[in-house]
## 1
Amino acid sequence: MSFLDDNNPCGQNLLNIVSVGNSITAEILRLKDYVPRIYRLDNKADKAKYGELILDFSYFKIAEDHEKKIEQSPELTELDDEARAQLPLITRFYLAFQSIHHYASDLQQYIEELNSGYYIQQTLETVLQEEEGCQLLCESLYLFGVILLLLDFHIPGDVRERLLIAYYRYSGGDATPSGDESNIHDICLLLRSTGYVHPLDAAKVLGLGGKQTAAGAASLVVPRYPEAYFSRFRFDENFVDLVVARLRCDDIYNQLTLYPHPAHRSTALSTQAAMLYVCLYFCPKVLHSQGSQMREIVDKFFCDNWTVSVYMGITVNLVDAWLDFRAARSAIENVINPSAIKALCQQQKEQLGKTTQKTEEIVREGVLNDNFVLEHANKIILLMRQSNVLLRWFCLHTSREVFIFAHAATLP
């Protein structure tokens, strides 16, 4: 029986969990463009008008006083009614936040069921021995990390807190849609602000000049990010270790057979490398102190690249991302240094020249016809593969990363 057969509940439940994870990422990417402007408080006019009404989690300390203040002020009452009119949209944000907590809880429950023998003849180890099972288990952990990163990047922590407080106030406190098990307090604990600042907002702070710039740069630093963020929900340690081990040691998508040339190894394993990068934050001991494992990881996945596409164009620079992780920093600095980068860039430039010349030779008018393609199919496939590998490398490494960790590094 195949792992993903309809009558295999173990495979179907895991497939459903991963499907939900992908749906959540899609919902975050949809909602990011619909955050009500008043909850951003990103200009002086909005701060002056709504600053007293729209609060972050500091509301919980002064809830009664805050409500009395609104009741006693006709102006604040009018603004409160105006904000309350957006409850349907705020509820959609809340449901998205709630689904993130659900996803983590469902995944943890699935792992507990595997460990307890709920699924006959299935354990974590046996699921990881199945090709589809290994892929889905690794993707399940990776997706939760991606969800957290995308959320923090597109919907800043202070905005999340204001939206959650607005839902809490306007929906009647602890009430949650359809009497759901996840209460708002658990969601607040998971999604409270991390302190991370979006690059566009960081650029405004760093552009102030003088002492304000230095003070602003200090406020942008979030030590060991996103380690603490990822640790807010604790998964089974054995599950995390097994997933990281599989991603580190195996070719879970069988890509090496499609990229047989040794120079294309990092491209073949690029999807797996992005998954491993995210999953390592759930296992920070490797990043901090497992020097031998980190050297193995870097040599296998990142020996000739340092910019990683984490998810749909969200790129990170490993040199900055691993700055606060001793073992990881040491491993990446061992292969990504000025002399190595210079040699690598020269090598890629030469390859680009050769590949461009070969491409121009066959795309001339009258050359690339049916007979030519049939006679030289293997050579054309090799050329296409080499072209794609080079194009990918140059696209990633000639532009600024999207998810910036070390904002202060951009200071002049």
## 2
Amino acid sequence: MDRNEFLKGLGLAGLTATVLPALNGCHKDDVSPVTTTSGSNGSSSCTVSPSETDGPYPLYTSRGSSIQRVDITDGKTGLLLNMTITVKNTKNSCAPLAGVVVDIWHCDKDGYYSGYAGQNGYLGTKDYTGFTFLRGRQTTDSNGQVKFTTIYPGWYVGRMTHIHVQIYTAANSANSNGNDSVITTQIAFPDDVTQAVYKTSLYSAHGQNTLTFATDNVFSDGYTNELCALSGDTTKGYDLTHTIYVSA
């Protein structure tokens, strides 16, 4: 889907997509580090996590072995983000769910996604056809967990900072369009941490995202069950933990 078409669906067609600055990543910043433990790590009750859109940039044609990896950076720079996602099954008293496939993807610190052309942003129009940066796939272990090494996502007009997540049974993991996924959802970020990150030298050229959860078309109906927990600081990076509840 073209980003302009997606933003049109959000009522933002007249806006120019703005995203984040290109700077070398994962080093000491010019601002004081902010040590944070923030967020809710998903719902504390045994209820299925919210379903959300996979748009505007899913990449169903590149979901083979090339993205079955822990480190999904592919050379992209930004503040280090170590992710641990836990999947639990509401049909089994919310026990950890082993053996399901977890796909994640998000934009780079400049607000662009891999795999698509014609992306308009503050650095101009970019063509990342053929790239798979910041996309990954792992299978949950006996604790229902997968881990990824990535960077703190940037932002673009119309959306709060987020990561897309899609979960499949092993039998349906080769699906080409997402219709057989167990869930398609998103991970939201605590805004106080995001603002601190966007003040660092890695992200500051683009400035702050003025959108709020109340005006985000995906999260405006509620985001607390999609809010991740973060610990760390703006010098060394963050550890993200999040639990996703599925009915499987």
## 3
Amino acid sequence: MLGRCLGVIILWSLSLNALAIQNADLIKNLTSRLHPLPQGGTLIKSFTNHSQSYIYDQALAIIAFAKQGHQRKAKNLLKALAHLQRTDGSLYFSYYLN
């Protein structure tokens, strides 16, 4: 029970920290991480010091861009994911951007 409570408290505190980031700063940061793909679309670079891109980060970036009115950026992320989608409909967990 203590573990569950601690987990809830940690998630709650993380969500408060996330709220402290201003929307404009968030969009600016995400925009600086956009990486164009040769086949079309863009992906968010998940880390500033690595060239890996995780699907979960793409989903969060799509939500953030769409919510803040940056529809073109959200659509470019979706376009990249559509190009990366496998024939069975799945995506890999992450992609290297180099």
